[in-house]
C-alpha cells in the first residue's frame, strides 16, 4: 500500500479482470438442445442484454484506460478504489443474465440499472481519489470538472431504475441511450489531446 | 477516446479476451458420467468442432498481431472497431457448442459460418479503420490491396452458409478449407518482412 | 528453473491467475429463474461470501505486488512457492460457494478459514523463500520482522476455524475482522517508502 | 506469420491461456449441496487429480518460460507449434475431471496419460522448431541434446497408459513420479545459467 506502486501492474490486473468479465458473459448464452432456429428464440433476450453489457464493459475499459493515462503513481487508496469499481463491474454478468432470462421484467431491469449506477459511482470515486492525490490543479481534476457525461449518467440510471417499475421498456431505452452517449466520440477531447 | 492511446494496452486487452475465448470453449466438452471410451462418443462431434474453432481463433490472434504491428497509435474509432471484432469472436464458443452438440445439422452449421462471416467483416472494418487513420500510402493500405485470402474468405463463408441447407458436410468442408488456407504460411510476406 | 528468470513474467502469470480467481467466483451466483426480488433471497448469502472473498483476493493481490516489488530475480524455489500460493488461492471460489450456499454452517465455514490459513502459510513460505535468496540483511527480511499483521492473521484464522464449530457467526466475524485489519492502510510503511 | 514477430506477445498470450487452464480446472470441483465434511468425500478424487494437474500445468508454464528465454524471434512455424502445445494443455481440465469423477478407472486414467503424452510431444516439436530456426549450434539445440528428462517422460507416459488397463493405480503412481522428477530442481542448469 505504497505511493511507490507504478500504474503498469494495476492496468494489467484491471485489463485481465475486465477481459474476463466481458467474455464470461457469453457463458450465460445457454446452448439450446434443438438444432433449428426456433430453438434460438429463448436465447434472443439474453443475447440482446449481452450486446448491451458488452458495450458497457467496453466503455468502462476505454474510459478506465484514459483516466489511468493521466496518472503515474498509484496509492493504496487508488488501488482499493479501483478494486471497488471492478467489484461492481464483476456483477454485470449476473444482472445481464437475470434480465435476459426473464425477458426484461421489472425487478431484473431495475437491478441491472442499479449495478450500472453503482459502477458509475465507483468510477467517480476512483476519479476523485486519483485527483485528490494529484492536487486540484491537475489535468484530471480539470477534466472531471468538464465531464458532463459523467454527471448525467447517474441521473439517467436512476431514472431507468424508477421507470423499470412502470414500464421496463422505458428503462431499457434509457440504458441504450446512455451507452450511445458514451459511444459517440468526444471530438473536443481528442482535439485537445492532439495538441 | 484519444488519438494518443498507445497500442500496448489494446494488444494486452485483446490478447486477454482471445485467450479466454480459446480456452472457455473447452468447458463445453461436458465430462461424461461413465468411465469407458464409449462414453466419449457423444463428446466427439463437440471435440471436432472445438479443434476447428481453436484453429480459427488462433488464426485471428495471429493476424490481429501482425496487423497491429503495422500501427503505432490507436484512435477511438480503432478501439471500437477492435471491440466489434472481439464481440463476434466471443460468440464462437456458443456456435461451436451448438454445432457440435447437434452433430453438424443444418441450422447450427449455418450459424457457425455466419459468425465466422461477421468476424471476417469486423476484421476487414478494423483493417480499413486503421488504414484510413494512417493514410492511403501506408504499408497497411498496400497490404490490404494484396490481401487475396481476406477477400476470398467471406465469399467462401457465404458459400458454406448456403450449402449448410443442402448438405452440412459441404459447409464443414468449406470451413476446414478456409482454415487450411490461412494456416499455410505466406512465404512471400515472410520474405518481404525479412528485408 | 534458473536464478536468471526476471520477475516480469511471474508477475504477469500471477496477475492472470488472481484476476481469473476473483472473477470466476461470480459464476457461483446462480441466476434465479424468477423475476422478483424475493428470488434473490437464496443468492444473498452467496453474495455476502463473494464480497468477503473478493476483498481477500484483492488483499493478496495487493500484498503480492508489494512483496515482488522488493525482489528482482526469481529462483526455481520462488517460482514453486508462488505456484503453491496460487494453488490455495484457487480453492477460494470453491470454499466461498460451499459456505454461501449452505448459509454459513459449521463445516463449510471452518473449511473456508482453513483455506485462508493455508494461503497465509503459503504466503509466508514465499516471503521466506525470497528473503533466504536475498540474504538476512535484505529489506524484505527486515520487513518480515516487522510484519505484525502477517503474524496475527494465521492465529486469527485458527481461532475462526475452532469457533466455527461453536458458532459459525463468530468465525464469520473473525474473518471479516482480519480483512478489515489488512484493508486499513499502513501509514508507517507508506511514509517509509516515500523517503 | 513473419520472422519479425517479437516473443513478448507470444509469451503474454501463452501466459493468459495457461493461467486460464490452471484456474478453470477448479470449476470442476462441484460444490456439494450438504454442509458436512462427508459431503466432500465424492469431491476428493477430483481434488486429487486437480492437485496433480495443477503441478503439471505449473511445470509446463515453467519450462515454457525457460525455453522462450533462449529465443528472440518467433516465426510463423513457432507460433503454430506453440498453439499446438496450448491445444493439448487445454484438454487437461477435461481429462482431469473425467479421471477424478470416475475414481481413476482404466479408460479415463489412460486418456489422462495420453493427453500428457501428446503435450510432451507438442513441447518437443516446439523445441525442435525453435532450434531449427536458430541453427544447430544454438544454445537451445545443445540444451535439447542434454535434456534427459524430456526424453524419459514420453516413455513413462506410454508405460502409464499401458498399465492403466492392468491397474490404474500403477498409472497414477507413474504420473506422480514424472511430476516429481520435473519438480526437483536441476542444479546443473541453474549453476550454468548463473555463470
Describe this entry's structure for a reader:
- The structure is a homotetramer of 195-residue chains.
- Chain A has helices at residues 7-24, 43-69, 76-90, 92-101, 106-134, 139-146, 148-164, 168-183, 187-194, and strands at residues 5-6, 73-74.
- Chain A is mainly α.
- Helices cover 76% and strands 2% of the residues of chain A.
- The model of chain A has no long low-confidence stretch (mean pLDDT 88).
- The first copy, chain A, has a two-stranded antiparallel sheet.
- Chain A has nine helices and two strands.
- Chains in contact: A-B, A-C, B-D, C-D.
- The A-B interface holds A 11-12, 15-16, 18-20, 22-24, 26-27, 29, 31-37, 39-40, 51, 54, 58, 61-62, 65-66, 69, 183, 185-186, 189-190, 193-194 and B 1-5, 9, 12-13, 16-17, 20-21, 24, 27-28, 75-77, 79-80, 83, 86-87, 90-91, 93-94, 97-98, 101-102, 105-108, 111.
